Amino acid sequence: MEVLRRSSVFAAEVMEVFDRSPTDKELVSQAKALCRDYINSRLVRAGVSWSKPECNAPVPGGKLAEVSTILLRLGDELEYIRPNVYRNIARQLNISLHSETVVTDAFLAVAAQIFTAGITWGKVVSLYAVAAGLAVDCVRHAQPAMVHTIVDCLGEFVRKTLVTWLKRRGGWADITKCVVNTDPSLRSHWLVAAVCSFGHFLKAIFFMLLPER
After folding, report:
1. DSSP 110-137
2. What is the pLDDT of residues 22-31, one digit of tens each?
3. Which end of the chain is more exposed for a tag (fewer CB within 10 A), N or C?
4. How far apart, in whole angstroms, are the C-alpha atoms of residue 34 and residue 70?
């Protein structure tokens, strides 16, 4: 019961920051909570069984739940446009999933490549799609502990690269302005632009990582 109480308090604290200007630490905590939710959604969709997130990890609720819903919705759109980009990522990168260092370095290299030309919400969604795709690969290859490593890695990347950008936009809630248009003729035009800007990033990262192996 004490663990559940601490979890509820932590989750409430994470949600409370939407009513004021969030701090760097709060934005990173939210980023990780969103990442856990995104990864869990993709693991469930893939029909992969795994150990549940830590019992004291915050679960998106309130406004953060709305952000998570939008993030997943936009992720669906992005993966619809380029389904092969976000599947079998470990194989595309030709990396071993048995080494935490290799997985971390590969994810950070891909993340850096995605944001080479600047930051947009489309690229942020792509970052989460990559994290989830890599997490699915890890669980399928009997490396479920790597899921938590990927979440922590994404959180660190957000802290170093995205926090300032997020603060300028008032935090994660700004993504709710990117609701997908229901008109098929206008399907996710901003996501198409985001994908086109780094359509070959996995190939580029493969060659970047090749000398390291």
Report:
1. HHHHHTTT---HHHHHHHHHHHHHHHHH
2. 899 999 999 9
3. N
4. 11
